[in-house]
Amino acid sequence: MTTPQHRFLIIADGEFGPLTSKTANSCIRYFPERIVAVLDRKQAGKTVQDVLGFGGKIPVVGDFERGIAQGKGATAVLIGIAPLGGRLPDEWKAWLRTAIEQKLEIWSGLHTFVGDDPELGPLAKARGVRILDARRPPPNLPIADGRAADVDALVVLAVGSDCNVGKMTAQLQLRDALVKRGHRTSFVATGQTGIFIEGWGIAVDAVVADFIAGAAEQLVLQGAKDNDIVLVEGQGSLIHPGYSGVTLGLLHGSCPDALILCHQATRDYIGDYHGREPWVKIPSYVEMIEIYESAAQPVHPTKVIGICLNTYDMDESAAREAVAKAAEETGLPATDPVRFDSDVLVDAIIGARATI
Amino acid sequence: MTTPQHRFLIIADGEFGPLTSKTANSCIRYFPERIVAVLDRKQAGKTVQDVLGFGGKIPVVGDFERGIAQGKGATAVLIGIAPLGGRLPDEWKAWLRTAIEQKLEIWSGLHTFVGDDPELGPLAKARGVRILDARRPPPNLPIADGRAADVDALVVLAVGSDCNVGKMTAQLQLRDALVKRGHRTSFVATGQTGIFIEGWGIAVDAVVADFIAGAAEQLVLQGAKDNDIVLVEGQGSLIHPGYSGVTLGLLHGSCPDALILCHQATRDYIGDYHGREPWVKIPSYVEMIEIYESAAQPVHPTKVIGICLNTYDMDESAAREAVAKAAEETGLPATDPVRFDSDVLVDAIIGARATI
Fold first, then answer.
1. DSSP B203-255
2. Is B205 close to A208, i.e. CB distance below 8 A?
3. What are the structural domains of chain B?
4. Residue B210, min C-alpha distance to chain A (Å)
């Protein structure tokens, strides 16, 4: 899978926002210069900066055809929101048909593969247009066999209190900082957005359940080639009622030497269940650390070596307080690596690398 | 899915044995009168009783054509072993082709769907022969939403120290005993063998990883209809390096009110990893209980209410000792429900039912 230098129109219709459009937001953070517009009929007329607090003057548009004509014109459409369950809303099909007819690639991370759509798939084939379904698993995945424990590189897995707290972003920031300091470091993408950014990886939440850990193992072996440090993107949370199985498979399959615990400082409950009364309360840092270390222990013991906070929705002094509180409660280095310096975590990873 | 009264030839080639042919053995235990023969070239000439210690005079044969001609003749071929990874060995295809040409149904629980085989699928269609791929997931599974916690029935999940320790058998025995005592009780099949036996269910290890818990939830809702007690078949183990994700998804999705911990009394290490040096040591009963109760706690707190032992490979007095030891170490009722009386566990379940 390569990452050609496309210019994207991002579809985030009705859901573009700091917490609701994770895929869109990450792509905007990592390659803003390649986004021509975001489609969201609810917020048309604003800029991405208005909506997210970053991203600059990229326009939010309410009309698909106008969207793909922005700037130098889009060369690909990227589906930037992941509805609960990941299925392709019917009304988007007309947009995607238009895009394919205009020879734009389709990049999707949905569970429903756009390429398998009985209309869009054949249409794309007939027009010679690529549909990139980032969640389509590779064939012949293995059952995990513990080989990830044997790599020479230090393997660091990001784990979280919940989905969508910044696990991928944290690892990408840390990768950049480690590379800057001269360490051969890979980022291993385990979800569709990471695959969009890096150009390779496996969406572990989309593999057949028996092969979650096997997929993680295969990714670590690939990421360890010619690298001294492997940063594995985390998925879900061990306390998430819907996705915990993915998280545990990833933890056991990747056999990490160290964990980074990620949390959004203002979040008290698992976010996907606000439709019901708030359901799963996020426990203290100390308890979350205990949950992850205990779950890993029988298979491959590991330790949390630092805390990554997401403080995007706090003012500066509240954010600094949250970081100080996390460090004090856990005795571990803590920071928000997007907002503040990531040095304390980088030092912790380099320190862990020195001891294996 | 219905369970027609087929007569089966079971394929267990090279792997027929007490521990290696789980699907075959369970089918033999639950409907021996419908098995005409077992195909295993290594043990041809023996009886099933010789190999398993139960199953009577069912012959083990070394020739496929002879196998399907046994007794009144087979009407279906059942694939009775699950190779690591679940893939269809190439050499079996000739047998299956022969079977389809003779209008025998194919029942399979492999991850590789026999019906998707480019040769066997079309051949079966052309001959009007059904291929039952028990692991094929139903379409449109939900993301788990906690609805399993809302059913009025008592939900009891079997959990284990490892794969293949008797979780399904335990629940089937308990179901029969509870029904005999007049309790409306369902057995919810979560794996291919249970589906073969019951005629319905979902193989949760074969669904897309994001939907493990959702599949479990859907099964509990279905099992709770017109029943007061729902016994959910367990899968894998929270300490199994390859399959732990399936186990946690099932635990969180089914929202059980009570757990039954299953263990093979002589097993010290997770069984699938004997190719390497023994890897994951099975901890004490008390620790296993702690692992399951802690993992469930943030989503839906629950308690282990009894211990089910598999003592098939011990003599009578050692088995009684093992049961007594499990009861003493945990303070919980314990038995081997296949070998001994299941009353202590049935009483525990009825007691739990009375308190919800």
1. -GGGSBGGGHHHHHHHHHHHHHTT-SEEEEPP-S-TT-TTTHHHHHHHHHHH-
2. yes
3. 8-133 (3.40.50.720), 147-355 (3.40.50.300)
4. 5
